[in-house]
Specification:
The structure holds 2 protein chains of 2 kinds.
Chain A: E1 5-13, H1 20-28, E2 35-36, H2 40-44, E3 51-52, H3 59-62, H4 65-68, H5 73-88, E4 99-104, H6 110-123, H7 132-136, H8 140-149, E5 154-158, H9 164-177, E6 183-190, H10 195-203, E7 233-241, H11 242-247, E8 254-263, H12 276-289, E9 298-300, H13 309-321, E10 330-331, H14 334-337, H15 344-358, E11 360-361, E12 383-384, E13 391-398, E14 402-410
Helix pairs in contact in A: 5-8, 9-15, 12-13
Chain B: H1 5-20, H2 41-55, H3 61-64, H4 70-80
Helix pairs in contact in B: 1-2, 1-4
The chains are: A alpha/beta, B mainly alpha.
Chain lengths: 413, 82
């Protein structure tokens, strides 16, 4: 008999706010998290894209200094989001060997690495901090969360670019079903709004160049979209077996019913235009959920606002849902938050969970004229999801051809 | 520029607070880094790197293990100044 896995805590920090409730409120209100950057380095290095969606609450406002300085900014976000989720879950009592961590990042400790490189070149090796490697290593998120919460079952990292934190949730779901743990902290974070990433994504023509109108630059599904907007932050879920959650009287947000993962093997950056890989990931998630495509009532699309990415996702979903794809309420929330890379899947899972709780699909802002090649049912206003049981999917696709989809069902008992 | 004993103690306390969150008032000369202040080896190494920068001294790696108390470190740093 397969175990039922539920969400008992959520946490998030992004351009829309420093907590999950703040994020959700701002998302529903149509706030745009994207603004012109004021860092000197934009000017110094002549970065062609001058805006991004920076986290609105800086980690140094939340973490004590001695704690923050031992952590790469991406891990600072991880800790903040995970702590919120843990408190939200009521700080569950669980044996350390039954608590696991599935944590994601896309790029990881970039800031630490490059700052240390500067220190080495400017001041020599004796000034390079002893904690440099423990801070920059990609597993720093998982390791530090394990340390923070005493999670001894395991602390696994998943790295699959923009699919990372959706994949971490899929992994957590599987790990819980396999009995590796009773409670898992899952999610992801990223802090990569750095000259290097901005310059290189700009060189790849992947970023929007709408420097004169940053708040409206991220416009998934619009005919004049011109690339994605860099975001940052992190989000976390506390996942638990239903049995464990009920035994302790936990508040239950929703049920994770499937986690599909596949690979395109098509191109290192472009996803498969036939959508075949993404289709398989969706089908896998639904199969695990024991659900037919007809039962899906809401989709949080990956929809980064790139010219080629958005239509490819549409094709994939059309394969699964047929003509009904134009009727299912879809939310493309990167319009509001930008693209958090390794953290985006978890943030979108939080939004999907809250969409089910509140029975409302969040708005997709910044729509100008809809692209006929991306005829999703998007709306600039929240879309009611109606009564009755809800089943949603959240998609994430990453450079490297990674596809990850989680299926989330409303929990009614 | 030579720092006095008191200045070195105050400066070192600042570095320790920065690294560990321990209140500066806890950082007294007789306190042991490991036993009293609970400072692990990697934090100690970080404090040493910062102290070298702050006080303009060199604290050789094989000397660090001899600096068992705050007082040992203060004396070493004061003596190490030109």
């Amino acid at each position: 008999m397969t175990k039922r896995i539920v969400v008992t805590g959520i946490g998030a920090t992004s351009a829309l706010g420093g907590t999950a409730p703040e994020n959700w409120a701002n998302l529903l209100a149509g706030v745009s998290g994207t603004h012109t950057l004021t860092h000197d380095w934009i000017e110094t290095y002549q970065i062609p894209v001058t805006f991004a969606a920076e986290a609105s609450v800086r980690p140094e406002e939340v973490l004590p200094r001695h704690e923050a300085k031992r952590l790469d900014p991406s891990v600072q976000f991880a800790l903040i989001a995970a702590r919120e989720a843990w408190e939200d879950a009521g700080a569950p009592e669980v044996a350390p060997e039954r608590l696991g961590v599935d944590w994601a990042t896309g790029i990881g400790g970039l800031w630490t690495l490059l700052d240390a490189w500067d220190t080495l070149r400017e001041k020599g090796p004796r000034r390079v901090m002893p904690l440099t490697v423990p801070m920059l290593m990609p597993n720093a998120g998982a390791g530090n969360l394990s340390l923070q919460f005493g999670a001894k079952a395991y602390a696994r990292s998943v790295v699959s670019a923009c699919a990372s934190s959706t994949e971490s949730i899929a992994n957590a779901f599987n790990h819980l079903q396999e009995g590796l743990a009773d409670v898992v902290i899952a999610g992801g974070a990223e802090s990569a709004i750095h000259p290097i990433t901005m310059a290189s994504f700009a060189s790849a023509q992947a970023l929007s160049r709408r420097n004169d109108d940053p708040e409206h630059a991220s416009r998934p599904g619009a005919i004049d979209r011109d690339g994605f907007v860099m975001g940052e932050g992190g989000a976390a879920l506390v996942l638990e077996t239903l049995e464990h959650a009920l035994a302790r009287g936990a508040k239950i947000y929703a049920e994770i019913v499937g986690g599909g993962v596949s690979a395109d093997a098509h191109h290192i950056t472009a996803n498969d235009p036939t959508g075949a890989g993404a289709t398989r990931a969706v089908e896998q998630a639904l199969a695990q959920a024991g659900a037919a495509p007809d039962e899906v009532t809401h989709i949080n699309a990956h929809a980064t606002s790139t010219p080629v990415g958005d239509p490819n996702e549409y094709e994939a979903l059309k394969n699964v849902f047929g003509d009904r794809i134009t009727e299912i309420p879809v939310s493309a929330t990167k319009a509001s938050t930008g693209h958090l890379l390794g953290g985006t899947g978890a943030l979108e899972a939080v939004f999907t969970i809250l969409a089910l709780r509140d029975r409302v699909a969040p708005p997709t802002i910044n729509m100008t004229e809809p692209d006929p090649a991306v005829p999703f049912k998007l709306s600039g206003e929240p879309q009611p999801l109606g009564d009755g049981p809800q089943l949603a999917i959240s998609n994430s696709f990453g450079f490297g051809g990674h596809n990850a989809v989680v299926a989330i069902r409303s929990y009614d008992g | 520029m030579a720092f006095s004993n008191d200045e070195v103690l105050a400066g070192l306390a600042e570095l320790i607070t920065d690294e560990t969150g321990i209140d500066a008032s806890e950082v007294a000369l007789e306190k042991s880094f490991t036993d009293d202040l609970d400072i692990d080896s990697i934090s100690m190494m970080t404090i040493v790197v910062n102290a070298e920068e702050k006080f303009g001294v060199t604290i050789p790696d094989d000397e660090v293990k001899n600096l068992k108390t705050v007082g040992d470190a203060v004396s070493f740093i004061v003596a190490g100044q030109e």
